[in-house]
Design brief:
Strand content: 15-25%
Radius of gyration: 34 Å
Number of strands: 11
Largest sheet: 6 strands, mixed
Helix content: 40-55%
Structural class: alpha/beta
Distance between the termini: 118 Å
Number of helices: 11
Length: about 350
Amino acid sequence: MTSIRRNPSPKLPPELLVGIVIALAITGIPSIVQHFLDQQKYESAMQSYKVAECGSAIEQFNQIISAFRLVDAGDYVSRAEEKKAECEFFEDAVRLQKDGKFELALLSYAKVAVYDNSALLEPTRKKLYELFQKAKVTSLSTLNVCNRIGILAERNLVPKSNANLPPLYLACGEVYDAEKSYKRAIIIYEEFIRLYPDHSLVENVKRSLARTTVADIRGRKGLLNIKSPRQTGTTGDGSTVIEIQNTSPAKMRITFSGTTPKFEEIEECKDCVVYVNNPPKLCPNKGLIGRYTFEPGQYDIAVEFTANDGNPVNPWAGTWLLETGAEYKSCFLIIRDPVDNPKKKEENSP
């Protein structure tokens, strides 16, 4: 019977084993110790952070950030850096507020607002309430502040009941108007109307919204000019009335900017068509009719269409002079130029 002789497994020299043990002790034990120290300091710092004692929290976060370690098993450094940044923004805001620098304070509070589920949101809310009690609207209605109202409102940090806030919304709309940032102005004005439907300034805001909406549409490509509506009679009571018929398969939104601002919508005509090149000379008298009463005067008008087929429809704008006691009628349809398809153009007919 043949026997097989196996060589013994190689053994590490005792000196090498001792070296490995020493190396593990040198690297591992301090890392374990530092991990527990980081954990304790972070928990302590978080207790201060949660009650908005940011001075103490920042000091402890700094100890974690600056400490030497080979590994950061608990990811404490990056967590400490994030919480420290929150605290620094909050501390800066509180200091600036105490110094009466309300615009800069508000901007720093807005930086706190970008952090989801921050423990500093409620303290920020309280500080902002105090700030809005003392600050003048003129000191806050800057482009930088207006650009951050959205995040403050989203986090419910802006005190809606404060008397200074509605004028600030209006002032920010005017700031965007001056910058020709019409879409931003529209958002601000619409938010004002939503939040404060019964406010004494709401009619002024509606006028501003109408004016800005018309300005926005007039700045778009493919804008068409629309002629004045034809007068069909008199009202008998001195009022000024316009009847508008939507003879198109697209929903239309009309903005009237003037003494009596209005924002109206007329649904699409279900059995109406888009005309190709040759529109009818007279209104087909199909589709829904909107009847609107106005104070007489000059109005800037803008119309947008939303077509169900997804094709773009050019907007249009014009200026109408509406006289006392007059009744007007206008009919709208869509004409497509086959050479320029899928672009569409609108026209109003007698």
